[in-house]
Amino acid sequence: MDSQQNTFRNYRLSAIMLILIGWSGLFTVIYFSLPFVWARWGFFVFMIMALTGTALPVGDFLHRRFPTEPLAESNVIVRQALWVGVYGATLAWLQLGRLVSLYVILGLAGGLIAAEYFIRIREKANRRLPVFTDDDSP
Fold this sequence. Notes:
By secondary structure, the protein is mostly helical. The protein has helices at about 10-30, 35-65, 75-95, 100-125.
């Protein structure tokens, strides 16, 4: 377990930078570029950054408001925010080919939720509790 308290302060600067760069980059790509290949790739990169940065404070709030167990690592919130960014960019990419339907939206969300669930199970299984002896009891 981390010895430091898991607070939003630990990644506040990262969230602010992701939000500013992501949303301003998306605005720039949408309004000031032509739909060529590099602008399209820039759109997806900026979309991942914008959605991840926006999901960081939301994820932190939800983990604080509805705690199920203490987080083993501080990167759980960052990883879950990154899932949100990847989910949004994947749906935008699929929309280019007109492949997005309700079943695709729900199936992709279910797959990402299942992946996060299995990652959390693995983290819980690998977690080691501190061992105390009689001399150094808490």
